[in-house]
Design brief:
The structure is a single chain. With 491 residues, the chain is α+β, with helices and mostly antiparallel strands. The chain is built from 15 helices and 14 strands. The chain has an 8-stranded mixed β-barrel. A 3-stranded antiparallel β-sheet has the order 5-7-6. A two-stranded antiparallel sheet has the order 13-14. The two termini are 49 Å apart.
Amino acid sequence: MFARTGPHLVAASLALSAAIPALAQTAAPAPSPSATPTGAPLQVQPLPTPLPLPTVTAEQAEQLRRIIVQGRIAQGLRYSTQAAEILPADDVGLVRAALDYARAIHIGRLDTADFQQDWALRPAAWDPQPEFTRALAENRLTQWFADLAPPYEGYETLRTGLARYRLIEAAGGWSAIPAGPDMTVGATGPRVAALRARLAVEDDNVARLGNSFDAELKEAVIRAQRRYGLNPTGTVSSGTLGALNVPVEARVRQIMANMERWRWMPKSMPTDRVQVNIASASVAVFEGDRPVMSMRGVTGKPGGGETPMLVSNIHSVVVNPPWNVPAGIAARELFPKGDAYLARNGFKVIGTGANRRLQQAPSHSALGKFKFDFNNPFAVYLHDTPSKGTFSRFDRLASHGCIRLERPADLANLLMKGDPVWTPEKVAETVAAGKTTRVPLQKQVAVYLLYWTAYGSSSGTMNFRGDPYNWDKVLASKIEARSATQAQAAR
């Protein structure tokens, strides 16, 4: 429960770099004159001399051209497959293009200036030149470039999905299903025929021809609804129609955007972690790199309450937390309701005038019985909620940015497992007592807030979710623009 007031991007980056240096990239501050002895001249360290670019043989130059041209499309760095790839004719320009391509597939296409404030998951800095020079000398360029992509199955399934959806696009994609009444078993006509043709593009088990909605087609609709994260009713209503009518070009860009986010991830993750998919409002807990718990969540609503992407460590659990209401929420949503409402709902006014703020007592707290704290510059956290009804919805983007949990007590007990004091019984007693108690974890647990809207299954089936924050479209455009800029610079 929070309202972001727009902390400056530099402050956000610095806070993240302090907590997780492997994932945040910030420039070191320049020396301050006040830090030097009085009267002493400021000592400025010279910049390191750039390493000379390696030379390539004619055979290696041809190999590099092939790797770059094929890889930019296969790795989702360029949308269009029609535009001719113009690479520098000279060896120096070609080597620069190769280094740029290596950096793009290893830590992402975006430049620092391309990141939005909410995209606080940042890749570590990396200079490809030393490794590239060794790969040249040892004549193993193909393998070296292949090893640069993120070492995750999630990335590889997206790369496979990208190739498939590019083929679908090249074959003409799919036609939109006309608007009309809901379709279910028993329906007939041209709209049903259009539905069959549309489903058959992605589902090989659908009979393409026919204009009747039978039980077999209903099962195909249910499969599609599950692929798109919709309520699997088997009835084609407006939500299902909208997902099916997203053009294949948009799905290609969606895959590209998610591949880029994988490139921002660290090259290895802790085996014990909590992962939140913001887009689908779902939470998974891993122990020893195995999923041991999953639950529904509620994440930030679009239009000002977006949950940021970031990584941190859960350091403590607050039992019976009060809610210190952010000033924006208090001013917009609570103070206008009057003193009687505030008193009835356990709010205490602290301070006076422009500095007054609200705190809600633990007995009434919108944070429920548990709050999970981790350092971050956005003041977001995981927490319980007394309002459980939202968890039954498929659309669960309804918070001010924090993540509400369906099973907070289970998560608390899992994170405290092994603590000789904080047994499940002790936790339950503390909850019942109603007193606010902070429990530092014996071992901090990594938490990842991620935005996955496309992912592949082991069978090769692509799954898509909505793009509630419009981040996919923005990111895909930034990838294409940055690729074009870098290609021009290399020439």
